[in-house]
Design goal:
The chain is of the alpha/beta class and 605 residues long. It has 22 helices and 19 strands. It has four domains: 226 residues, L-asparaginase, N-terminal domain (Rossmann fold, 3-Layer(aba) Sandwich), CATH 3.40.50; 114 residues, Rossmann fold (3-Layer(aba) Sandwich), CATH 3.40.50.40; 118 residues, Ankyrin repeat-containing domain (Serine Threonine Protein Phosphatase 5, Tetratricopeptide repeat); 102 residues, Serine Threonine Protein Phosphatase 5, Tetratricopeptide repeat, CATH 1.25.40. Helix 11 runs antiparallel to helix 12, helix 14 packs parallel to helix 16 and helix 17 packs parallel to helix 19.
Length: 605
């Protein structure tokens, strides 16, 4: 049965890409194997994954949708499964498959609020790391998951992992590529697979999880990375294959090293001992590395240890720097390898830029250690310190909670006034521009309402998300349209914002604007990419409403928009609809339109 419409009910769309792996496998004579079509049938048969009582239209979905049962947060998550053919064991996944996943996310990016990628566990860390670089200016949640035991088995981890990934992708705007496994949410390029037999198969040795699903879902928002760029989402799929991992071991021969470093090798992850050491007595090894780096091979040094990072504390490690080897900090081998592949594939980068970016934290993949910069403490903030003293707060946890509750409304107030200096101060004091106030509104929502273009620019350049929705389900773009902030709309669209409202909601607002002869409102919606041919719940189009109300300015505007649409479409297929629209026009408007059309045709002749 359909649920009654309530302001609190929120619907979210998630695309689930099934590449294969254990999660959708079935038992065969040869063991567990992924089989096309089997997984979705199994999903639809399980009540915890498919609410068969919920009815909804599937016209706006590219694949047959499935509804999750209503969540405890009053969200209705609708998800589609796009299954690859053939579905693959993760051991067979290669760089071409990374590009396929990236392109699919790009193709359906505007149609869905989040993405879940089902993937075999063996190479999941490689794919998640690669996608973290390939998905440029990402603004939505991309969650990888899989299982150790297939969904078809009575006792499995597939169900919980799949549900958890869907809840993260449907509930939260976390603009990262993540791995969800065994109730923990990890940054994808920080993960390693540490067990082939445990349900707790993944860990993130050098970074705490981004989230944990206990009785309550806890997201560490301070650790979430946001894109500090005003470009829109796009993908980079040119990944260089001539990269590899060279793991040192006692007694490794010069012939082995030379053979590994020979062309066409372009990038190498050197897994050294401990904190980045090699046998400095092996002059031959150092000479071969120096020869390779002089030839243009990018060599990055990572530790063989699970936890920790490479340093130059020992002489055995410093000789690598002299040989042109770059420090990989605390990157995992998977993150380092895919980063090399990505940077070498960026033909717009020269060698110096590639080397520079290898040392930088571009997707949260490494920890930059700089002892020359003092660590900022929230206790240094005079405002927080004063309030903490007045409230007799002393522990770091209490101060952290105080900051979390105080900063969002204060930053929203600064944004409402366009006070960029105050916003910069909050940023220095640890403020997160994507954290919302009690109404779910961020500083970007407020700045868009007020039309402070320079403030919107500042917020976007410092990681504010264009996809966050408030308690009324409004995005910053919704607010910019509502208050007709044209320059703000342009900037938001440039950054990757897009309409998220349903067709019927947009149609109702367009018809309202047409009835009120509000051309500015129609212009705002048109700039945002609204389709003016859609109809509201009474099956009325904006041009029909404008005609009935004799809204002359709206009629003129809509005719111009429709004329452009006619030029781009097949005139014959729309002739009936177009003639019906013209028949409804007022005589004055019709004469104006026909005269304009006649003059245009004469000029063309």
């Amino acid at each position: 049965m359909n649920e009654p419409h309530t302001e609190q009910l929120k619907k979210r769309r998630v695309l689930m890409i099934n590449t294969g792996g254990s999660i959708g496998s079935r038992k065969t004579d040869k063991g567990y194997q992924p089989v096309c079509g089997f997984f979705e049938k199994e999903v639809r048969s399980q009540s915890s994954l498919c609410d068969k009582a919920y009815e909804f239209s599937s016209d706006e979905f590219p694949f047959p949708p499935i509804a999750l049962p209503l969540t405890s947060h009053n969200y209705r998550i609708l998800y589609c499964i796009k299954e690859y053919d053939p579905v693959l064991d993760s051991s067979n996944i290669d760089m071409a498959d990374w590009a396929t996943i990236a392109n699919d996310i790009s193709q359906y990016y505007k149609q869905f609020d989040g993405f879940v990628v089902l993937h075999g566990t063996d190479t999941m860390c490689y794919t998640a790391s690669a996608l973290s670089y390939m998905l440029e200016c990402l603004g939505k949640s991309v969650v990888f998951t899989g299982s150790q035991v297939p969904l078809v088995e009575l006792r499995n981890d597939a169900r919980d992992n799949m549900l958890g990934a869907l809840l993260v992708a449907g509930h939260y705007v976390i603009p990262e590529v993540m791995i969800y496994f065994n109730s923990k949410l990890f940054r994808g390029n920080r993960c390693i697979k540490n067990s082939s037999v445990s349900l707790d198969a993944f860990s993130s040795p050098n970074v705490s999880p981004l989230g944990v699903m206990d009785v309550r879902i806890k997201i560490d928002w301070d650790s979430v990375r946001h894109c500090s760029d005003t470009h829109s989402f796009h993908v980079h799929t040119n990944m260089v294959k001539d990269v590899g991992i060279l793991r040192l071991f006692p007694g490794i021969t010069r012939a082995t090293i030379r053979a590994f470093l020979q062309p066409p090798m372009q990038g190498v992850v050197l897994q050294s001992y401990g904190s980045g050491n090699i046998p400095d007595s092996r002059v031959d090894l150092i000479e071969d590395l120096k020869e390779a780096t002089d030839r243009g091979v990018l060599v990055v040094n990572c530790t063989q240890c699970t936890n920790g990072h490479v340093t130059q504390a020992y002489a055995a490690g410093r000789v690598l720097k002299e040989a042109g080897v770059l420090q990989g900090a605390d990157m995992t081998p998977e993150a380092a390898l895919t980063k090399l592949s990505y940077l070498l594939g960026r033909i717009d980068y020269n060698m110096e830029k590639r080397k520079s970016l290898l040392l930088q934290n571009i997707r949260g993949e490494l920890t930059v250690l700089d002892d020359t910069e003092p660590n900022f403490s929230i206790k240094d903030s005079e405002l927080i310190r004063t309030i903490a003293t007045a409230l007799h707060i002393s522990t770091s946890k209490e101060i952290h909670l105080l900051r979390r509750h105080m900063f969002p409304p204060l930053m929203c107030m600064a944004a409402s006034k366009g006070d960029n200096d105050t916003l910069k101060d909050f940023r220095k004091q640890g403020g997160d521009f994507s954290v919302a106030n009690y109404d779910g509104r961020t500083p970007l929502h407020v700045a868009c309402c007020e039309g402070h273009l320079d403030t919107v620019q500042l917020l976007l350049e410092n990681g504010a998300s264009v996809h966050v929705r408030d308690r009324f389900d409004h995005t910053p773009l919704t607010d910019a349209i509502r208050f007709k902030r044209f320059d703000v709309i342009k900037l938001l669209l440039q950054t990757g914002a897009h309409l998220v409202e349903s067709s019927s909601d947009i149609a109702s607002r367009l018809c309202k604007a047409a009835a009120e002869d509000d051309v500015d409102a129609l212009t705002a919606w048109h700039m945002a990419g609204a389709n003016f041919s859609i109809t509201d719940h009474e099956n009325r189009s904006p041009i029909q409403v404008a005609t009935e109300k004799n809204s002359k300015q709206a009629i003129s505007f809509l005719l111009k928009c429709d004329r452009k649409l006619q030029e781009k479409s097949n005139a014959r297929s729309n002739k009936g609809v177009y003639d019906d629209m013209l028949a409804r026009l007022t005589p004055v408007s019709l004469r104006k339109y026909q005269f304009s059309k006649k003059r245009k045709n004469s000029a063309a002749t």
